Amino acid sequence: MKVLSIDVGIKNLALCLFKIENKEKYEIEKWNVVNLCNEIVINCHCGKPAKYNNKENYCCKKHIKDTNLSLIHPELDIKKLKKKKIMDIREILTTHQIDFNSKQS
Which residues belong to any copy of the Mitochondrial resolvase Ydc2 catalytic domain (predicted)? Predict the structure, then answer.
């Protein structure tokens, strides 16, 4: 008897095909993972995955220092800002000299 096991995830589909002869004897005939996203992986010139780009240049974390690409301060990351209170966000904007309309907020 053959059994096909399929696991569908958000990015990948995994499949395993078993050949089962009895309760003690089985064999894996095929085991595979298929990427469902067709993501294009772009690497830095050193071969590591690029984390930063400006539409023309792609750099890893190590080589970003060698370019003229500007980085956003980690404190200004949108995921972190969403978790902060408005008073904390105002303070961060003031610290980084970013203009904002204080009357609206």
Answer: 3-51
